[in-house]
Amino acid sequence: MTASLQISQLQLGYDSPEGLHTVLQGFDLQVPAGHIASLLGPSGCGKTSVLRAIAGFEPVRAGSIHLGEVLLSGPKVHLPPEQRHVGMMFQEYGLFPHLTAEQNVGFGLRRMARAERDRRVLELLAVVGLAGAGGKFPHELSGGQQQRIALARALAPAPALLLLDEPFSNLDTATRERLTLEVRDILRAAGQTAILVTHNAQEAETMADQICRMTPV
Ligand SMILES: Nc1ncnc2c1ncn2[C@@H]1O[C@H](COP(=O)(O)OP(=O)(O)OP(=O)(O)O)[C@@H](O)[C@H]1O
């Protein structure tokens, strides 16, 4: 079930030989359930680090991350990534090349009963407008189609929150603009809470209900 996100006074950093390299400090973000938020800012300001922290791949140095009522990360709390109900979609599509489109979409549903999984995969392929492409391999699909399959795969387990890290940056301008609108409509129709990372202001304005402008610390 889709959920709200609350990030309070988040601090993130990396250990270096000179000590802690702080990337982010006192960062707050509230995203109501069903909203699309965008993190917008120049390279290196910490956008990807915030997503990694939400997904559970980065420890938080201070502050907290709640998804609905659940504390994902906080002082002495770190829920493992697989227990967070957070989905992800990245710029490299990340599709498995040896699996068909429908096998890719069904990848996160392996624990479901076969019939239910098949039904969900067909439903998601239809949602992203690729109902007839389930048997194709990634190399038989265009970049835009691959990205739509990646979106279907990310949505299939019905994550509470979907993270999108520059998902359109490898695409040509026309495909990128079309897909931005399509993905926005799909997320809105699903009532999916989502966070989009981008350094493209126009993309952020097209997709998002709210924009969080970030600057390097
Ligand atoms: N694993 C790591 N170890 C050390 N430093 C890191 C690591 N990952 C990121 N950083 C540093 O953290 C800062 C923020 O990086 P991050 O990737 O979050 O920025 P970004 O805003 O997403 O940038 P971009 O738009 O280029 O992807 C940068 O200074 C980067 O060098």
UniProtKB/TrEMBL annotation:
Give the source's domain of life in one word: Bacteria
Extract one GO molecular function annotation from the record.
ATP binding
Q: Is Signal one of the keywords?
A: no
Position of the signal peptide: none
Q: Per its UniProt record, what InterPro entries does this chain match? A: AAA+_ATPase, ABC_SmlMolc_Importer, ABC_transporter-like_ATP-bd, ABC_transporter-like_CS, P-loop_NTPase
Report domain ABC transporter positions. Answer: 5-217
SMART domains for the chain: AAA
| Keywords on record | ATP-binding, Cell membrane, Membrane, Nucleotide-binding, Transport
Q: What is this protein called?
A: ABC transporter ATP-binding protein
Organism of origin is: Comamonas guangdongensis
